[in-house]
Automatic annotation (TrEMBL):
Family affiliation: Belongs to the PDK/BCKDK protein kinase family.
EC supergroup of this enzyme: transferase
Species name: Eeniella nana (Yeast)
One term under GO cellular component: mitochondrial matrix
Protein name according to UniProt: Protein-serine/threonine kinase
Record key words, sorted: ATP-binding, Kinase, Mitochondrion, Nucleotide-binding, Transferase
Length: 479
């Protein structure tokens, strides 16, 4: 990887793709595959991902190269740019599958639509359903037992008619000589399940899964690497805070990354389900049709407390009390919910420990009696709301706007002092000091039309409100 170079020809190709509009996918469209997707529908999804991802990657490469005031020249920024460019190259280099059987080619063109007549029966299972999640250094594994946290620091639309694969997208007048294959309009297109698909279909799905798995692993450390680059640049420029344009770029970049990883993760998981490597009636890819809020919240609690104990080298982190209906379930991405709760809890646990250390300067950290962090979950018609309450001293009112800017942190360990240790997907983020936790979590909430809000009482504590949209029909907020 170290010998890889971004050539002028590849850059020109990337900039041409960056003129093409991105195509959003709704959560509801993603679950239309069902828990047992057909190879034909997976073929459409794989083809969509192979053609849509380069467009999304190209927009981000262009953004990274046009950052102002020397930020684009930071080594860490260029590292991420190269990751995106290399992934773009790998996807655009994949050969288009050729279906020799004319009848099968007609079916896979998307022109023939097959309506699903049998409704999938969601099986009733135990309260602890098998689940594995690993992303951005958070690992949750309860496939074989109750809940294991840790591992590296802590743990819509209906199917439509597809366009011909050979049709091209006509770009602006400066690039009319460039032919860019236009992807299918829909991520999901129904195809029959009761036929035998040729080897070309199965082989293409396996190839795409292999390539996407490699790309996903390559980008594991993107959030932290971007953070290191911006923090280094901010220190060189002697900036106290980031200006609005850089914050807007980071919002746009990180939100796009969530969408890219969602599309990659969903495509990989769907293919794994089809190959029998991952199966549960509750899941369609990485989307859980019956996400149990209490289970996911408990996973996040275990992971955050484990990370806190490891960071402060204490036997037991402050207690966390969870108030949530046991049977509260809705369709969502458990990995996203884990991210948001984990980051919010990390902040609350850190604030609780450090505030009460200041209140009891002569008491050993192990001997301090910490008040509990409380998580209260309420169910509404539109939203499921999660409130995380701590007694960590709160935030001064003048500082609250800075909480939503990137790389503002009161943690003692700064990101420029932190060297990430990752290889082959074993990336481990720091417990604190990144300064991206809350704004990044808000993006996760907003990705599916939710939100994250904060109310503070200086001298007492902070309440964070996480609103989760349960309508699940909105499409991705692409920029």
């Amino acid at each position: 990887m170290s010998s890889w170079k971004l050539t002028k020809a590849l850059r020109d190709q990337i900039y041409r793709y960056a003129t093409v509009k991105q195509t959003g996918v709704s959560l509801r469209q993603m679950v239309q595959f069902g828990s047992k997707p057909s190879p034909g529908s997976l073929f459409h999804a794989s083809h969509f991902a192979v053609h849509e991802l380069p467009i999304r990657l190209s927009h981000r490469v262009k953004d990274l190269e046009t950052l102002p005031n020397g930020l684009a020249k930071e080594p860490a920024i260029q590292t991420v740019r190269n990751w995106y460019a290399q992934s773009f190259e790998e996807l655009t280099s994949l050969e288009e599958p050729v279906i020799k059987d004319l009848e099968m080619a007609d079916i896979l063109s998307g022109e023939k639509q097959y309506e699903e007549t049998a409704k999938r029966q969601v099986s009733s299972q135990g309260s602890k359903r098998p689940y594995f999640f690993s992303d951005d250094g958070i690992v949750i594994d309860r496939r074989s037992h109750g809940s294991v946290s840790g591992g590296g620091g802590a743990a819509g639309a209906s199917g439509g008619v597809s366009e011909d694969e050979n049709e091209v997208h006509d770009l602006n007048s400066a690039h009319r000589h460039v032919l860019i294959p236009r992807p299918r309009r829909h991520y999901y297109i129904p195809t029959p399940k009761d036929i035998v698909y040729p080897s070309e279909v199965v082989d293409y799905n396996k190839l795409v899964t292999k390539v996407l798995t490699k790309i996903k692993r390559r980008h594991d450390a993107t959030v932290t690497t971007i953070a290191r680059g911006v923090q280094s640049w901010k220190r060189k420029k002697n900036f106290t805070y980031l200006d609005n344009s850089v914050n807007q770029f980071l919002d746009r970049f990180y939100l796009s990354r969530i969408g890219i990883r969602m599309l990659i993760g969903q495509t990989i998981a769907l293919n794994q389900q089809a190959q029998g490597n991952m199966y549960s009636d509750d899941y369609v890819g990485i989307i859980c049709l019956r996400t149990n809020v209490m289970e996911v919240a408990q996973d996040a609690i275990d992971a955050a407390r484990f990370a806190c104990e490891e960071h402060y080298d204490i036997m037991e982190a402050p207690p966390v009390q969870l108030y949530c209906p046991e049977d509260l379930e809705f369709m969502y991405v458990p990995g996203h919910l884990v991210h948001m709760l984990f980051e919010t809890l990390k902040n609350s646990l850190r604030a609780t420990i450090e505030f009460h250390q200041r209140l009891h300067p002569n008491t050993a950290i192990e001997d301090i009696h910490y008040p509990p962090v409380k998580i209260i979950v309420a169910e509404g018609l539109e939203d499921i709301t999660v409130k995380v309450s701590d007694e960590g001293g709160g935030i001064p009112r003048s500082t609250i706007p800075l909480v939503w800017t990137y790389f503002y942190t009161s943690a003692e360990q700064r990101i420029e002092e932190y060297e990430p240790t990752y290889s082959s997907g074993s990336f481990k983020p720091p417990f604190m000091g990144l300064g991206v936790g809350l704004p990044h979590s808000r993006l996760y909430a907003r990705y599916f039309s939710g939100d994250l809000k904060l109310i503070s009482m200086e001298g007492y504590g902070t309440d964070v409100y996480l609103h989760l949209n349960r309508l699940s029909s909105s499409s991705e907020p692409l920029q």
